[in-house]
Specification:
The chain has 388 residues and is α+β, with helices and mostly antiparallel strands. It is built from 13 helices and twelve strands. It has a four-stranded mixed beta sheet. A four-stranded antiparallel beta sheet has the order 2-3-9-8, covered by helices on one side. It has a two-stranded antiparallel ribbon with strand order 6-7. Strand 6 and strand 7 form a beta hairpin.
Length: 388
């Protein structure tokens, strides 16, 4: 997949937005423990950045998924990864199934304002006892007349403390195989700015991604119309697996932004004098940075190839899993080496490498842990004993 002039123009526009509207405030948002999602998303919506590959009739740009990859790559330049993660939750995690399978009513009510930035969205899949093992979720949505009554809880929910609605995966049947008894349901979280009755949240403090608010969300007899279900009942697991592929490719594309950290530390080493010469003059450092950039180029090629095949309608589960695995590990490696090359400065709290070190650790856990990615890859390559 080669970027066209239009891809580059989009990325240049986004980088200007990042420089003006995000980077001047990242330190403040890190200290606050959240970025102002409604304020920032409204600006993003006005700029056309929240519906790049969404249907034009709902306010999107109607472009293909390659532009989403370009956007995710640009978001990787944000120094506070909690901010870029919150944005990608809106564009590539909470809304793909709604855009593809939701009714016209749902798309008008929830997708269109999410594209314009008038609503903030979150995704509710993980639970305390069901992270990577999505099939084992316990949250229930029981039918009562024309409604669902929802009971349970969701864990690690990015944007939750500010979100207007959640794309919730819940069991809508007590019988049947775990892959066929679940549905995706739009759950409005707030009325007049306050949490709806039956919904409670507990904020979660994290090691990194401080500018992103995260919470556990509890549901106690929360009533939602059945017409808020996305697509067919019992297809939620399948729809969520589809969403995961877009999420994982976007997450991998975002990690390409680690190349900016390499250039940042190189600039520092060019000015840092030790033993009478710049540290960048050290061949070991030169070779390591060159090696890390080579690995980033390999990740870029993998992401682009996977995106190209996804657009062509091919099954990219294996490639998306590989990209997610590679991206998480590489981002950690880049941050670790950059901390090392900064020396003592790299161990200070506000150093860019230190922040990347804290933030990037989530990449091998969230959205499917490395072990899950390896399991998927092994099965699809017919490497397991059970396949023989």
């Amino acid at each position: 997949m080669l970027y066209t002039h239009e891809h580059r123009a989009l990325m240049d526009s986004m980088l200007r937005f990042i420089e003006k509207e995000i980077e001047p405030y990242t330190d403040e948002w890190e200290e606050l423990g959240a970025f102002p999602a409604h304020e920032l998303f409204k600006k993003l919506g006005q700029a056309g950045f929240l519906g790049i590959n969404r249907p034009e009739e709902y306010g999107g740009a109607g472009l293909d998924f390659s532009y989403n990859i370009a956007a995710a790559e640009a978001w990787g330049r944000v120094s506070s990864q909690g901010v870029s993660m919150g944005i990608i939750v809106q564009t590539d995690m909470a809304t793909p199934a709604l855009a593809k399978h939701g009714s016209d009513e749902l798309r008008k009510t929830f997708l269109a304002p999410s594209i314009s930035g008038d609503m903030v969205a979150c995704l509710g899949v993980s639970e305390t006892g069901a992270g990577s093992d999505v099939a084992s979720i316990m949250t229930q949505a029981r039918k009562d007349g024309d409604d669902y009554i929802i009971n349970g809880s969701k864990m690690w929910i990015t944007n939750a403390l500010q979100a207007d609605w959640m794309c919730l995966l819940a069991n809508t049947s007590e019988s049947g195989a775990p892959h066929h008894n679940k549905s995706l349901i739009i759950v409005p979280l707030r009325e007049n700015g306050k949490l709806r009755p039956g919904i409670e949240m507990q904020e979660i403090r994290k090691m990194g991604n401080w500018a992103s608010d995260t919470a556990q969300v509890f549901f106690d007899d929360v009533r939602v119309p059945q017409r808020y279900r996305i697509g067919e009942e019992g297809k939620g697991f399948i729809y969520q697996m589809e969403q995961f592929q877009e999420e994982r490719l976007a997450a991998a594309a975002r990690r390409i932004g680690a190349e900016h950290l390499i250039m940042t530390v190189a600039d520092y080493l060019r000015e840092r004098i030790a033993f009478g010469k710049p540290l960048l003059d050290n061949q070991y450092i030169q070779f390591k940075l060159a090696e890390l950039q080579t690995e980033i180029e390999a990740l870029r090629a993998l992401v682009y190839m996977a995106a190209e095949r996804y657009i062509a309608g091919e099954n990219i589960v294996t490639l998306a899993s590989m990209a997610k695995l590679k991206a998480g590990r590489l981002a950690r490696e880049v941050a670790d080496w950059c901390v090392q090359f900064y020396g003592g400065m790299g161990y200070t709290w506000n150093n860019p490498a230190a922040r990347a070190y804290r933030d990037s650790r989530l990449g091998s856990i969230g959205g499917g842990a490395d072990e899950i990615m390896l399991s998927i890859i092994a099965k699809r390559l017919d490497l397991t004993v059970g396949n023989k």
